[in-house]
Amino acid sequence: MQFYDHSSEVSGSFLTWQNIIDWAKTHYRDRLFHKDEQIPARPELIYLVNQGAVRLVSKTQNNQYSSSLVESSELDPDKLEDAFLGFVGEGRPFEIVAQSSFSLHAYAHVDNTHIVWLYWEDLENWPDFRQEIYEAFRYEHQRKLLWLSALGQRRTIDRLTSFLSLLIEEYGDNYDGDYCLPYTLTHAQIGSAIGSTRVTVTRLMGKLRRQGIISVQEDNSICMNHLQVLKNDQKP
Asked: How far apart, in whole angstroms, are the C-alpha atoms of residue 171 and residue 176?
């Protein structure tokens, strides 16, 4: 599912999108971000990715330092653990939800990531587009259920394979029959997403490569055969 198709220049959604981008620029509601630069997102705002990609991360207190939940405003920055939560690609919205036991953060995953932001009441000017926003968030909720199902598997290699399959199925580009992630991920980031370590992910990635399940391009992008993606998506 693509919330907004940048190639569909004749569609009403495209015209509405362009109107919103223009409105955001005239109201100083847009900004370009460098790779790995934190986006100062806050609750009650809607963010639209007009260009590039956003990486969502949660920061939680390490259990070895604290056995009780603490307010996110009281979290010690030196004792936090990052967990990769997924990407937000071009043409898609995201929001930051306030939580007490952890904090959510957004980072530009590639250079020249262009973000615009609005309040929900701003969308009263574009009621049809507001409905598309609702549909996009509903779709993201369904994807998160698949994500949780994948991460609930007992074996680490199954979690890893399902995790890569979900990412590639949603964001992958077709290269000679293989589908490759357009964004690179470190083994540490993958490990944080599936509840494992960088060392374990490196070992299992090597195993998946030897089995022909995945391949890695020169730019370190991860690829998977389309049939393998479908096979993993059909797992219960």
From this structure: 16
- Structurally, the chain folds into a number of domains equal to 2
Q: Contact at 8 Å (CB) between 168 and 222?
A: yes
DSSP-assigned beta bridge partners for residue 46: 118
Per-residue DSSP letter, 108: E
Give ∠ CA 156-158-159 in degrees, rounded to 5. 65
Residue 55, in any domain of the structure = yes
Lowest-confidence segment of 8-12, 43-47, 63-67, 206-210 by average pLDDT: 63-67
pTM above 0.85, yes or no: no
Whether 124 and 49 share a structural domain: yes
Residue at token pair 């929001």: 95
Q: Look up the CATH number of the domain holding residue 138.
A: 2.60.120.10
CATH number of the domain to which 216 belongs: 1.10.10.10
pLDDT digits (tens, 9 = 90+) for 146-178: 888 888 899 999 999 999 999 998 888 887 778
Q: What are phi and psi of 17, to 5 degrees?
A: -60, -45
